[in-house]
Amino acid sequence: MTLQEIQDQALQLPTGDRWQLVQVLLDSLKREANPNLKRRNLSRLRGIAKTSAPMGESNNQADYATYLTEKYQ
After folding, report:
1. 3-state DSSP call for residue 70?
2. Residue 18 near residue 10 (C-beta atoms within 8 A)
3. What is the Cα–Cα distance from 73 to 65, expressed in whole angstroms?
4. Which of 69, 66, 72 is CA-nearest to residue 53?
5. Is 62:53 a contact under the CB 8 Å cutoff?
6. Residue-level pLDDT, tens digit, the chain, 73 residues
7. What are the phi and psi torsion angles at 32 (to 5°)?
8. DSSP 8-state class, residue 49
């Protein structure tokens, strides 16, 4: 099937079906244009859960008590 045949058939579709076809084609082009989009978004979050104290050296109970004390003063 040639591109011209596809175009001719697409133009014979009802309006709603043509809009749906347009959306599918646009989504396909976006995925091809930005294949690493998710990877870049996640890379911005690297280190977001990092604490100031090294792992295992934090006293969670004392930290929580300090937090509550400061919060309710």
Report:
1. helix
2. yes
3. 12
4. 66
5. no
6. 899 999 999 999 999 999 999 999 998 898 888 766 555 666 677 777 766 666 556 678 888 888 888 888 8
7. -70, -35
8. T
Look up the pTM and report it.
0.46
The two three-digit tokens of residue 44, written as one number: 């911005």
Distance CA 6, CA 55 (A): 60
Rounded CA separation 70/73 (Å)? 6
Q: At what angle do helices 3-11 and 15-33 cross, to 10 degrees?
A: 140
Q: How many residues does the chain have?
A: 73
Scan for tokens 């175009």, then name that residue: 7
